[in-house]
From TrEMBL:
This is Diacylglycerol kinase family lipid kinase. It comes from Kineosporia corallincola. Coiled coil: none annotated. Residues 47-178 form the DAGKc domain. Belongs to the diacylglycerol/lipid kinase family. The chain crosses the membrane at residues 6-28. Keywords: ATP-binding, Kinase, Lipid biosynthesis, Lipid metabolism, Membrane, Nucleotide-binding, Phospholipid biosynthesis, Phospholipid metabolism, Transferase, Transmembrane, Transmembrane helix. Pfam families: DAGK_cat, YegS_C.
């Protein structure tokens, strides 16, 4: 006896409906498990639910009250107490707030802002063993991107910050001097520090444009500054010989990926105990074409040099624009950088 085509059609429709229902149930179940948490597994040493501290940028994060309520609700679903809320100020971008959070016994300190906020929090968390979580809300968010943490997705990044895997990474320390004879100012970086073209672009990009189109604003600003003269520098990598170059930019990195997934330093890892260095020396406007080609294809070219080191010292013939983790930091004529291996614990997807 054969089955009519109408019966087959009915069977196929029923099977399709059942498959959709099963898929929806699985998605809903996974979402409930993701945010329900199990309090018994996250109790701290005192038998209480743990508590995070959130160091939030006073300007970059919009609608603080709504974000705070959202974080409190999500924390509760994961078995955590409502977090301590600490806002940055113009005088203190996060260092003092982080030290207070550690002294008060926070189980994790969460940087809620851009790479500048992250850097300030990390400086005070270094060598404490207290993990840092990331709620990336800036323009670049390069550390988060390199660690696989989704920018501007609060629920996902908070889940990682509270329940993710601990990963210990390096920190870069840098000394920048305005002139060859002036005392240096000491800073830290987690992503990249540099002199020259990249820092100039970051310093001259209009904040209004960044707010409108995000990191693409850097591309717009960079296009107008491709023309420029090279600067003579002397450079010493570790204990090697002093070398001379004429450069447009030098970048010292702890991680290698830029916005858009571009690998400026393909071999850079945040926990390998090394700094990766790129020296860019194009001559004129057309000299940038092989630079872009070398970066995109990851091939060597005479205008793009790569180094790996634990320390590097650079002296320029004139002051150059400087940047730390994408934040302009004035000008400098001297840059000295060193790596501090495995100094910081960060929560990453796990």
């Amino acid at each position: 006896m054969s089955i009519s085509s109408d019966v087959w059609n009915i069977v196929l429709v029923v099977a399709l409906v059942l498959a959709v229902v099963v898929l929806l149930v699985l998605v809903a179940t996974r979402r409930r498990l993701l945010f329900r948490g199990r309090t018994s597994e996250v109790l701290d040493d005192t038998g209480e639910a743990p508590q995070a501290a959130v160091v939030v940028h006073g300007v970059k994060v919009d609608d603080h009250d709504a974000r705070r309520r959202q974080i409190e609700v999500l924390s509760g679903r994961l078995g955590w107490r409502a977090p301590v809320w600490l806002e940055t100020t113009a005088q203190d971008p996060g260092r003092g707030q982080t030290r207070k959070a550690v002294a008060d016994g926070a189980s994790v300190v969460i940087a809620f802002g851009g790479d500048g906020t992250t850097r300030a929090v990390a400086e005070s968390l270094a060598r404490t063993g207290v993990p840092m979580g990331l709620l990336p809300a800036g323009t670049g968010n390069l550390l988060a991107r390199n660690l696989g943490i989704p920018p501007n997705r609060l629920e996902s990044s908070l889940h990682i910050a509270l329940t993710g895997r601990n990963r210990t990474i390096d920190i870069g320390h840098v000394e920048l001097a305005d002139t060859l004879d002036s005392p240096p100012r000491k800073e830290s970086f987690l992503v990249m520090s540099g002199l020259g073209f990249d820092a100039e672009v970051m310093a001259t990009t209009a904040p209004e444009l960044k707010k409108k189109i995000g990191w693409v604003a850097y591309v717009v600003a960079g296009a107008s500054r491709l023309r420029g003269r090279r600067t003579p520098v002397t450079m010493q990598v570790d204990d090697g010989p002093v070398q001379q170059r004429k450069i447009r930019a030098v970048v010292v990195g702890n991680v290698g990926m830029l916005q858009g997934g571009i690998q400026l330093m393909p071999g850079a890892l945040p926990d390998d105990g090394w700094l990766d260095v790129v020296v860019v020396s194009p001559r004129g406007m057309t000299g940038w074409l092989p630079v872009v080609g070398a970066i995109l294809t990851r091939r060597d070219h005479t205008t793009v040099e790569h180094f790996r080191c634990r320390t590097i010292e650079i002296h320029a013939d004139r002051p150059m624009f400087a940047q730390l983790d994408g934040d302009p930091t004035g000008t400098a004529q001297t840059l000295k950088a060193r790596v501090d291996p495995l100094a910081l614990v960060v929560r990453v997807p796990g």
